[in-house]
Amino acid sequence: MTRFPAFFVVGPPRTGTTWLYEVLKRSSALPFPAKETRFFDLHFHRGVDWYLRHFPNHAGDAVMGEVAPTYFASSAARERIARLAPAAKIVCIFRNPAERVLSLYRVKRAYGMSPWSFEQAVVKDPELVSSGRYATHLRAWQRAFGEERVRATVYEDLRHDPQRYLDAITDFLAVPRIPLALAEKSRVHDSESLTEPRSYFLNRFACGVAEWFKAERMDRLLAVARRRIVLRLLLRSGPQFEALSADALNRLYELFLPEVEELESILQRDLSAWKPQPVDSRAELAA
């Protein structure tokens, strides 16, 4: 009988999923060395055998799982997971949507996946806005797997108390608790050190090559290239991102306000900090 992951951390992107992957792989069987297989949303046509080869320890006793933030807003991924792993547990992580979209744009721009300014990208890149429809997608995951199998968490809780947050996640996933080292408690990945691409086309080419490496299962070589070449020479060699004005930032808060208010109702939690504020009360935020 084919064994599929027992849990999926579906993001959305830029909510601490890389940090969570690095921690969870100590007690779970996760894809390795690449964090994301993109199987259920991008590479489903490659077949189950291709997917399972990403799990070097899938034959052992450790609980299998995948940390895959691109799955959150993908109805195709959700439907495929529900069909192949209907008993899986789902973890969502919600972050201030305006801050998260800015962070996601920075990453996509640095990697050569977005040729636009931030204001243009909000209009032309569907992922930016779609991945911020928190309540809409959360309810879809709950319908597909049942509310008891879907855990909605908040990024600020991870930043404030990583150990307590992690304990709640591991208990929900039924995997052994993981004591965090001091360095792990203070290291939650962000995009603050990324820059505008020095050459958009060079970064886009490198990103395309990286996707080919992943598809051909050359994950180890890709991991080395990212550490030694891409991160150092491409992602941090251009000009700094310009700040987003307070007016533009508030328009972004307005865009996501209906979803935030519905998420408040679902979680029974005050999310006022994620809502529009008087312009003078918000400092400019780097895009």
Summarize the structure in words.
This protein has 287 residues and is of the alpha/beta class. The protein has one domain: 3-Layer(aba) Sandwich (Rossmann fold), CATH 3.40.50. Strand 2, helix 2 and strand 3 form a beta-alpha-beta unit. The longest helix has 22 residues. 35% of the residues are buried. The mean pLDDT is 85.
CATH topology: Rossmann fold
- The strand count comes to 7
Helix content: 40-55%
Characterize the biggest β-sheet: 5 strands, parallel
Structural class, from helix and strand content?
alpha/beta
Name the beta content range: 5-15%
Mean pLDDT: 85
Gyration radius, rounded: 19 Å
What gap, in angstroms, lies between the N and C termini?
48 Å
Per CATH, the superfamily is: P-loop containing nucleotide triphosphate hydrolases
What pattern of helices and strands is seen along the backbone?
EHEHEHEHHHHEHHHHHEHE
Q: What count of helical segments does DSSP give?
A: 13
What is the highest CATH level, the class?
Alpha Beta
Question: Looking at the structure, what is the overall shape?
Answer: globular
Q: How many domain regions? A: 1
Instruction: Name the CATH architecture.
Output: 3-Layer(aba) Sandwich
- Give start-end ranges of low-pLDDT stretches: none
Which strand order do you get reading across the main beta sheet? Answer: 2-3-1-4-5
